[in-house]
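Final report, closing paragraph on structural work. Over the funding period we assembled a curated collection of sequence-structure pairs, and we close with a single example.
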Amino acid sequence: MQLHPVTRSSASDDVYDQLAASILDGGLEAGAPMPSERALAEALGVSRPVVREALKRLDQAGLVRIRHGGSTVVRDFRRSAGPELLQLLLFDRDGALDLTVARGIVEARSELGPPVAAAAAARATADELASLRDLVDQLRAADDVAVLQRLAMAFWDVLVDASGNLVYRLLFNALRQAYEPVMDALAAVMRREVSDVDGYAAVVAAVAAGDPAAAAAATRAIVDRGAAATIAVIDELLVPDDPTTEEDAHG
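Its predicted structure, as stored:
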């Protein structure tokens, strides 16, 4: 576990981020006791109340278990944590993108979209339908991929609200928070999806008609385009370099 003195204005946030990163990358193993508050405070250059506050947040996030009167123990986050950790998992402590996590986010988004649209077809209000139609009009008028991405995100945001499903809402929030930091990097591969205005219009038409099956199918058609392109790029990056190919190239 590598810790460095805290320099940010929000000390508890920095402590939380450092300790969470150490748990997520295996520096602090599941089942192991956390260092004492005193030891952490000394290593991080902060007060014990700051460490205590960060530990409470780690406990709430499912990363540790605070045993009253005993030691604080690291938990197996794969069993105890929720999707709000995706944003932390997406990048390592050096800022490098974890491609496996990125692939999982894309896959989860593809699976979440169709049932969200189906639920919206059964529950959307007139105001939500009006918002969806307005966003389709804005998508049709836009040509910059960054603008298209933001409008598409707003479209899904309204669609999730229209589903009337709080669980979908919270899952979408976690996926969006993880996706937003890499939106610019994915602009090129997402262009085909976010520029498919007729596809978005088909979703709205199915939702307006109260047809869950058609809404799910139209949504599947859209998200699969973006997912296929993104996953293809990620899978290519995940393939390790072939040393024999490099030798042949230099031989």
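Residues 30 and 37 are 18 Å apart (CA to CA). The chain is about 70% helix and 0% strand. We thank the funder for supporting this effort.
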